[in-house]
Predict the 3D structure of the following.
Amino acid sequence: MSDKTTCDHIVEAADQLFYRQGYEHTSFSDIADAVQISRGNFYYHFKTKAEILDAVIDLRIGNTRKMLERWEGEAKHPEDRIKRYIHILLTNWSKIKYFGCPVGTLCTELAKLNHTSQEEASKIFTLFRTWLRQQFILLGHKKDADALAMHVLAWSQGVATLASTFHDKKFVSKEVKQMCEWLKSYTENATQTEYSTNQNK
Amino acid sequence: MSDKTTCDHIVEAADQLFYRQGYEHTSFSDIADAVQISRGNFYYHFKTKAEILDAVIDLRIGNTRKMLERWEGEAKHPEDRIKRYIHILLTNWSKIKYFGCPVGTLCTELAKLNHTSQEEASKIFTLFRTWLRQQFILLGHKKDADALAMHVLAWSQGVATLASTFHDKKFVSKEVKQMCEWLKSYTENATQTEYSTNQNK
DNA sequence: TTTGTTGTAGGACGGTCATCCTACACCTGC
DNA sequence: GCAGGTGTAGGATGACCGTCCTACAACAAA
């Protein structure tokens, strides 16, 4: 906390505001108020709003990477790891209820703005995709791993979207349960022994 | 075409622009340019931007209702009707590729803006939900009908979101195929005879 | 012809936005 | 003490936004 720079604080505040209000609907003043900093002083840290966005995306990529690594430490079995992903829908329910999935909603917004950082934002999705794929490979689904990863991604995305529209936790719980059952059917005939903790490179 | 009022043209142009650029990112000038009308003259037709949004939502509700009725005429078997819904992902691919699902993205945006018309927009979702539920009831899944409807809704939403992020048509085709297969498993043991064309009321 | 309604054109308004500039406080090294 | 880098404060700028107003064209009814 003490060693965080003003720059870090700006990016963290922007991260939250972009999630809750959207990128475009968040002004410099909003961020300035959140960080308790002079509005005009932003130029010293970030030349443009797009630069803040890129920093926010980088932050999210970093945080996601850390989270995935943590999950790998906490759960050795790939099924349990994938379950961690699925369960974000419940653990982050209080936010998802109002603002949906931070990744999906950002990508959607940037697509409509035809923003330069669209591809950069999609990298957060790709991070999850690659990680999920790796888990499915470990489960023995080498050929279908990417399709399975995309399927999990899409499923959770859809649930998040409907969750924020209807604010219905029972629906989310039901879908999470279904996803876990579906996952189980892809786990049962997998060899239990040879899971490697090593990722790609 | 000839009997359309200026008002209709405004709403139709706004409908398209809200879909492609988002509600907030679309200005009065944008709509005015599209309709070839004086910018300041909007006040005569719509007192506020929110009023245009409500008109757009009403238009979408009307169009959706018409489409569902058309589907009912074209397909007598509930499975085929639900398939029509699933296949929008492919028939509207050229738009979904860039802008996602018009319903989901609007609801998501309005949620972040904390806009008054959030509930109104969610009615478009509810329209699909109710219709899908009815089809599942006709398929003999009286008890689970709503959950199944929500599942189809969520699944297609997620696919649309990832489709607009990765622009990958193969993925969409694959998921559509899977959805149809999944649907089939809920159709096979349904009684083939007694499908009623009558809806609720 | 006059009156009134309906619709349009174009610009004025107050506000907000991203951006940019300048003045100033703080600190470190000389 | 002084110079120079680092960070901050606060306001200026110009563009754009939603909103609103007024003048005017077109047409129908009186």
Observations:
- Chain B is about 75% helix and 0% strand.
- Confidence is low (pLDDT under 50) at residues 192-201 of chain B.
- The interface with chain A takes residues 20-22, 24-25, 98-100, 104-105, 107-109, 111-113, 122, 125, 147, 150-151, 153-159, 161-162, 164-166, 171, 174-175, 178 of chain B (CB under 8 Å).
- Residues 22 and 106 of chain B are 7 Å apart (CA to CA).
